[in-house]
Input
Amino acid sequence: MSALDPVAVIAAKRDGGRLPDETIRWLFDAYLAGQVAEEQMAALLMAIVWRGMEPAELAAWTGAMIDSGVRLDLSGIGRPTVDKHSTGGVGDKISLILVPLVAALGAAVPQLSGRGLGHTGGTLDKLESIPGWRADLPLSEVRASLAELGGVICAASADLAPADRRLYALRDVTATVESIPLIASSIMSKKIAEGTEALLLDVKVGSGAFMTELGAARRLAETMIALGEAHGVRTAALLTAMDTPLGEAAGNAVEVAESLEVLSGRGPADVRALVVAEAEVMLRLAGIDADPAAALDDGRALAKWRELIGRQGGDPDAPLPAGRELAVVTAPASGYVTRLDARAVGVAAWRLGAGRARPGDSVSATAGVLCVAKPGAEVEKGAPVLRLVGDDPSRVDAALDALRGAIGIGPELPPPAPLVIESLG
Amino acid sequence: MSALDPVAVIAAKRDGGRLPDETIRWLFDAYLAGQVAEEQMAALLMAIVWRGMEPAELAAWTGAMIDSGVRLDLSGIGRPTVDKHSTGGVGDKISLILVPLVAALGAAVPQLSGRGLGHTGGTLDKLESIPGWRADLPLSEVRASLAELGGVICAASADLAPADRRLYALRDVTATVESIPLIASSIMSKKIAEGTEALLLDVKVGSGAFMTELGAARRLAETMIALGEAHGVRTAALLTAMDTPLGEAAGNAVEVAESLEVLSGRGPADVRALVVAEAEVMLRLAGIDADPAAALDDGRALAKWRELIGRQGGDPDAPLPAGRELAVVTAPASGYVTRLDARAVGVAAWRLGAGRARPGDSVSATAGVLCVAKPGAEVEKGAPVLRLVGDDPSRVDAALDALRGAIGIGPELPPPAPLVIESLG
Output
């Protein structure tokens, strides 16, 4: 196949072939230069959904995406760098707690994030409910914050893997999102470009996650670990449960409030347990011997939070915006809560205004869902299970619609479901 | 799936689903109106290459392509209409002979053609080597010629299945040509739109054909027959051999000259045999009881040719343009010719100038390859096997390159290969 003929490249993948490294390089250069048309890239993407990519081929593909922009060099900041990425879940405020916690223990965490989309919230959207806090930082500030404080949570610069932005927009309109190699290369190109030495992946599995099936989640995790290693980033993964929301809050300000509880040594047990489990892996990857639970209990993590928020213009003492209670969903029977569907709660919070349907939409700081009773709780018929909060009552009906059938009640205490299903890498 | 969401339509096909009829209608309307983007149609086409289409789904797809333009109504011309379509071969001048032959016997043959592309020549290109002959006719002339003479060979109007033109251009740049349902719908939408009551398909199989494999050719033929029947066109197919060129000439004027030989009751036996076989099927489809071989021998077919050519401005008595002999390929050993590769000969003729690489390129009237010795012929080492003719000596080297290894010589007479492999419908 000639590296200069896009039709031959598409045909090779269509027929199940492996694209040579130099062909992939040429393809990305030509695509970004406008010499390969969107329709040609779309056909190639669908052929990749169909045929997949071999590990070395995918590493080259990801490398070409990284090389479409800059790869940050964080050497010389004086601390080991380690980041985490979650594939997205409902009530997933782990990063808000984990970044200050791991930073407090001596690592530097370069958490450069995208915005949330759909029913899983975005870390930046949550933090933006804090008065004054800003997500956009120049790279000089990113580096300074990492060196001085050991962490930063900010918007990923447009210079990081810009090819991913174009490819993702194309995948979104051509039904080519659902492909493990394409998902893996999208995530890993941005994380590798941000310059971290090590990376923990939290791959969510369950109704509220992008991956609803354990086998697919495991393949995605393994694929991303291989990509990290191929590009010199020590990478590990946890497969974690996402059938029910994490913690009790799903939204923006409500999740910040819950994060502050956990940072203060309190808060829901599941959130604290997952934060500690993830911190342990990150510290191991960074070569740091420390006890994360202690740093939650003794105020070190909270102190680091105040520093990090303050450095980006946020007032850690300002009251968070609060919505009104707009509706309550009650238990349809007496018994134990056996099921509280993560996706339904996520969609309800989204419809209340916590999430966006399209990139660029604004989100509501106050909208969200509070889970008063979670699986394992004993409830009386008519007792509150969910409280819907926010500022816009016109959105309540659509949110309640999403919650139809989301709550299961049974006569017996459900068996405890493990939060961390599997540890890889 | 909502009929109004192209991403859901693509995803449904990606996941192996059947597109409902009303979704297909909506899709074509939206695509032609610019509401479905080229990249979305490209992704859908690749998903169709992958997943295929069910017969009823493909009939609806083809119906939407037909309805993107006009379907001619040829009722009232006073003769039964029957057309033929060849999937394209090297030296395939059958239509030039078949149309006047079947017209002479009482049917009306509306042969509305596209231009040739690649190594298989186009009927219009061949006829345009006749001084004065023009391919473009208004529809009123098409109808008049059919009613008065019983035939017409002309360029297909842009009003026939215009969606196919757009889809084909997109398939060409996205490596989505090679799909039996997409090939079948492209051919049949145009043939059904031209208004014929019956249709014979000549599906070529072998090295010089689009389909090199019998199984795939049979599936294509069966798919097209089903589409014809679904849209009320009596359809039959012959699977015919295309491992070696048809007749002795491949090119434009040289094929017209050979056609005149066959129309005069002479000419190569293979061409005559295939013309007669195809005419028999067409006459059967048209409900006409007649002997085509007799009409070749007694001058009726030739007289009809003169009428048809003259009606479109051609001078049947004018000498055809003739090229020079540019090179001769000789037998590499003494023995029997066991193989003369159709594709190699087609590519050589194409490179000499007989065919075009891109739509809109002009072609040479004189360029071509004459097969002096075909499989079964006994030759001495050094005796001529192929003569390359044309006007442009600068093209000879590339043509000779294509012919490397194209000729096989062996000690024994090869077994005769059947020309008509299978008859369907």
Remarks:
- The longest helix of chain B spans residues 269-286.
- Chain B has three domains: 6-52, 82-311, 324-410.
- The longest strand of chain B covers residues 198-205.
